Amino acid sequence: DLLFAGTFGRIFHGILIEEKDPSKEKQVFVKTVKDQASEVQVTMMLTESCKLRGLHHRNLLPITHVCIEEGEKPMVLLPYMNWGNLKLFLRQCKLVEANNPQAISQQDLVHMAIQIACGMSYLARREVIHRDLAARNCVIDEALQVKITDNALSRDLFPMDYHCLGDNENRPVRWMALESLVNNEFSSASDVWAFGVTLWELMTLGQTPYVDIDPFEMAAYLKDGYRIAQPINCPDELFAVMACCWALDPEERPKFQQLVQCLTEFHAALGAYV
């Protein structure tokens, strides 16, 4: 079944049958490209798909198989998560929320944030920089378990989230730290900045950050000290966590393990009021 299609990329829901035991089947995401995809696009998909390969954590979704046959387009297989892309899930929740305010709770959203922070903390310990953390690069299942994915095909499937600033490279400008925008510097600290924006996405149920700011003006806007506004119904304590992630000095931003602890304490406090 086709789940998403972009200009050159496609993601399917498929079934993987084990060669040694055909009775065993696993549901998978299948990432591939269309027939008209260029070699550059194919190489980019494969390179970005391998970003998390060999890493094992309950909040990561690394690839399980890469299928390459002569004359066929390559396929990248990942474990299936039945509620799919987190960004699209959040936006669906927003539609449901209009009729049912209890559709998803603030406690649920904070729990999702904790899981993302746990996965990113693991990457930081392994000295792996994601470079494109966002709700669009996470998936979710019916138990509200969240896993971080690579960004393969994201530029194609979510083109409105990427912008070219004149250097022929599409970047997730609205999720990027100032040092990444200006100096092309990436680190665990720039991933923390992106996590703050991802937390904002969670609390707004999938809204686009800085939607009124021209991407070419983003660096100057951030340099002048401006940030996205506090979401409606977002507690001050939670917005303070986001704000810490957006400190101009990378050294002043919290580490992911600190974010896990802080959000876990906030989640427990929310539970005390339920």
| Contiguous uncertain segments of 5+ residues | none
Number of helices: 9
Any idea what the radius of gyration is?
19 Å
Q: Given this structure, which CATH class of the largest domain is correct? A: Mainly Alpha
Distance between the termini: 40 Å
Fraction of residues in β-strands? 5-15%
Query: Residue-averaged pLDDT, rounded?
Result: 91
Gross CATH architecture of the largest domain: Orthogonal Bundle
Tally of discrete structural domains: 2
Enzyme class: transferase
InterPro entries: Kinase-like_dom_sf, Prot_kinase_dom, RTK, Ser-Thr/Tyr_kinase_cat_dom, Tyr_kinase_AS, Tyr_kinase_cat_dom
Pfam families: PK_Tyr_Ser-Thr
Main location: membrane
Short account of what is shown:
The protein has nine helices and nine strands.
Topology at a glance:
Elements: E1 2-5, E2 9-17, E3 25-33, H1 39-49, E4 65-67, E5 75-79, H2 86-97, H3 106-125, E6 138-140, E7 146-148, H4 154-157, E8 163-164, E9 170-171, H5 178-183, H6 188-203, H7 218-223, H8 236-245, H9 256-273
Helix pairs in contact: 3-6, 3-9, 6-8
Molecular structure report:
The chain is α+β, with helices and mostly antiparallel strands. It folds into two domains: 2-79, Phosphorylase Kinase, domain 1, CATH 3.30.200.20; 86-273, Transferase(Phosphotransferase) domain 1 (Transferase(Phosphotransferase), domain 1, Orthogonal Bundle), CATH 1.10.510. The protein contains nine helices and nine strands. It has a five-stranded antiparallel β-sheet with strand order 1-2-3-5-4. Strands 6-7 form a two-stranded antiparallel ribbon. The model has no long low-confidence stretch (mean pLDDT 91). GO terms for molecular function: ATP binding; metal ion binding; transmembrane receptor protein tyrosine kinase activity. ATP binds at residue 136. One of its GO terms (biological process) is positive regulation of neuron projection development.
